[in-house]
């Protein structure tokens, strides 16, 4: 039971909150609508001020909603517009805090997964993939996520997936080669295997041949073989990013090294990639699973050492094991080896 006066206070509080959020949305919307390369500096500055003045949660949700509405449409969005929007997120990610990029990335990846499964006819998938690609281009997310998405697309290997693989490789292929050439090579081998074992109607398609040619061009670092490939706009905006990011580094260390699986199951297992993020959910490891793993083999240890461990209140198997290892080792190298085991 909620007494009337408390209920009334809550309602006025909710109205006040709604009004504040509406005002905030209008302000952010106004800034995003005016966003372009020349005024990116002033707009990112104003956005940072808004972050300082409002709660981060409200700002993250408002910004993500507005950007998703602006960029994820049924028609293909201009690449330049996408880059400018993602560059803004990247600058805020480096200057305000990594939760800005993390919140936006999670929303984009979940929406991408949902639309991929739903077989929608529009260009939403391409638009979402472009957002993810540019988040990688501007050092918000690590190549690990891009490889996860490519592996997922290669494993399905239908016409739609082939189109998406081509789209992604055209945007970030050469950066992936620079970051992790071995992983790219493995991916190309897997794609070739899939193409060889695919159904006859897929094998004959020029699209599949074109995809394999694109992959070979990537492997051989031959940019001329990829039609319409132009690294100039991304490079230009990266230079602009370096001038606008306050910290002296290139921002590589604030990249989110997170896998596709972790992002999609964030509600179940928590967001470990955001420092200090709160999480209330089911325990990450079931008690039933953890019981058998508790038995640790530490070899034969004298009862005297075990008694010492008990006196020092080493009350779990793992604590006792570490204590015994430290007490019975000959020197630091021996202790190191045993602890590793």
Give a count of the beta strands, DSSP E runs of length 2 or more: 0
Strand content: under 5%
Structural class: mainly alpha
- The CATH architecture of the largest domain comes to Alpha Horseshoe
Name of the top-level CATH class of the largest domain: Mainly Alpha
Do you know the CATH topology of the largest domain?
Serine Threonine Protein Phosphatase 5, Tetratricopeptide repeat
How many domains comprise the coordinates? Answer: 2
Percent range for helical residues?
over 70%
Low-confidence stretches: 286-295
Mean pLDDT: 80
SS element count, helices: 18
Oligomer: single chain
Q: Give the N-terminus to C-terminus distance in angstroms.
A: 57 Å
| Rg over alpha carbons | 26 Å
- H/E topology pattern: HHHHHHHHHHHHHHHHHH
Judging from the principal axes of the Cα atoms, what is the shape? globular
Biggest pleated-sheet summary: none
């Amino acid at each position: 039971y909620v007494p009337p006066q408390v209920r009334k206070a809550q309602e006025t509080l909710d109205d006040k909150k709604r009004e504040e959020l509406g005002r905030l949305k209008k302000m952010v919307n106004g800034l995003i609508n005016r966003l372009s390369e020349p005024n990116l500096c002033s707009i990112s500055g104003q956005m940072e001020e808004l972050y300082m003045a409002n709660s981060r949660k409200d700002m993250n949700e408002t910004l993500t909603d507005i950007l998703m509405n602006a960029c994820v449409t049924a028609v293909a969005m201009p690449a330049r517009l996408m880059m400018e929007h993602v560059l803004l997120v990247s600058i805020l990610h480096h200057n305000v805090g990594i939760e800005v990029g993390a919140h936006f990335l999670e929303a984009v990846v979940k929406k991408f997964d949902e639309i991929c499964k739903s077989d929608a006819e529009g260009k939403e998938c391409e638009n979402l993939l472009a957002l993810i690609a540019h988040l990688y281009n501007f050092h918000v997310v690590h190549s690990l996520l891009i490889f996860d998405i490519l592996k997922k697309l290669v494993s399905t290997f239908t016409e739609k997936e082939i189109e998406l693989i081509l789209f992604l490789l055209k945007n970030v292929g050469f950066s992936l080669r620079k970051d992790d050439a071995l992983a790219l090579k493995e991916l190309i081998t897997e794609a070739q295997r899939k193409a060889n074992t695919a159904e006859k109607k897929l094998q004959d398609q020029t699209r599949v041949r074109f995809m394999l040619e694109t992959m070979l061009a990537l492997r051989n670092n031959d940019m001329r073989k990829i039609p319409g490939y132009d690294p100039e706009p991304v490079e230009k905006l990266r230079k602009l990013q370096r001038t606008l990011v306050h910290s002296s580094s290139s921002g590589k260390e604030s990249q989110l090294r997170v896998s596709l699986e972790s992002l999609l199951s964030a509600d179940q297992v928590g967001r470990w990639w955001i420092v200090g993020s709160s999480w209330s959910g089911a325990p990450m490891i079931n008690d039933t699973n953890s019981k058998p793993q508790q038995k640790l083999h530490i070899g034969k240890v004298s009862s005297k050492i075990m008694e010492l461990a008990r006196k020092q209140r080493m009350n779990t198997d793992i604590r006792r094991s570490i204590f015994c290892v430290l007490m019975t080792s000959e020197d630091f190298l021996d202790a190191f080896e045993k602890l590793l085991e």
